[in-house]
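Anyone opening a protein record will find just a pair of labelled lines. A complete record is shown below as an example.
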Amino acid sequence: MPVRLKDIAKELGVSAVTVSKALRDHPDIGQKTKDKILRRVKELNYRPNLTARSLVTGRSSLIGLVVPDLIHPFFSEIAKALSAALRQKGYFLIVASSDSDPALEQNEIEHMLQHRLDCLVVASCQKDAAGLRQVRTGGHLILLDRNFPGFSSNFVGIDDYKAGELAAEHLIAQGCRRLAHIRGPHNNVGNRRAEGFLAALKRHGLETPDSYILETRESADAAGEALGAEALDRLMAQAQRPDGIFCFNDLLAVGAMMRALETGVRIPQELAIIGCGNYHYCNKLGVPLSSVDQGAVEIGSRAAEMIASLIAQPTSNKPQTAILTPTLVVRASSQRQ
């Protein structure tokens, strides 16, 4: 039979409240009493019943995170930073992957909500916000990376329009004049990066043929390198080849760059390539990859701060937003000058 808190209290001749406070390092409890309780707790290998505690306090100290892909460097770095920041605040992170499947994402959310979470964080792959509306009736919700037009929610992400602008301005500054974009899916993130990229080209009087804007499937994150290689083949098959490419993410950029090198295209002399994400391996490639840094670690840290703020102000109905400014990291794949 598992040891109960009240059993420890009875054995030591103190109240259950005193034991509970000692476990939470409450200042009301004297150090001598606290040491005695903690020593006995360790000897008995006692583990608090968090479910029972949450029924009393209304808090579980559990935070849920649902992302499209745990292998994807961007989301894994966010999860790591978020977990570390929450740990310092006394919260624990539960992580699940939707495999970029909207139905599986909804199932994971339903399962998460059964754990009486204090907050749920979602990097959604849904087509719209219909499945997320119910979350707000059961607790705090924070969207990561991607939000939905018309859906008011807490959000942490980057200025994706600016990301597209940064990439275009850099390629133009390197002397590129025939610029292509291997874009992401038709959601808020993919659309804004494409809009920023095209707006910068327009400001410089550069025309972009429709054939230079290539779309990737919704599974771009899961099969990015293969899709990048496929897109590069299509671009290089055109009568007038582009001399600069901005890719929606680094996985697409790596696939495009590897295929270009395989076919004898010189990078960056004949073709400059820039990605988005600045994944940890970008500077370790044969040709180090230029990239727009999304600040995954900062996104995770800012999400943790937002979680603490929401829990501290449970009656606040005003959504919080943290939109970070992306930065450009220039490496050999695009640096001509």
Summary: The longest strand covers residues 62-67.
